[in-house]
Specification:
Layout (H helix, E strand, L loop, with lengths): L1 E7 L5 E7 L3 H15 L2 E7 L17
Antiparallel strand pairs: 1-2, 1-3
Length: 64
């Protein structure tokens, strides 16, 4: 699955990452690793929902 992640860095700047992930767990692990090593947090995530298996829990950037 393709995803774009917007991280908010400690100095207030935004850092965007565009990356291909094997599945949602891979995406979650990557975000956790970056947040713990760079002392930042995930602001937003966009990904192609058509590539997400229906049984996987996931969040989108819109109200459902």
């Amino acid at each position: 699955m393709k995803a774009q992640i917007k991280f908010r860095m400690p100095d207030g700047t935004d850092w965007y990452v565009n990356k291909e992930f094997n599945d949602r767990q891979h995406l979650d692990n990557y975000m956790a690793l970056v947040c713990s090593t760079k002392d930042c947090f995930v602001d937003e995530v966009w990904y192609d929902e058509s590539e997400v298996h229906p049984s996987e829990p996931h969040k989108t950037n819109r109200d459902e």
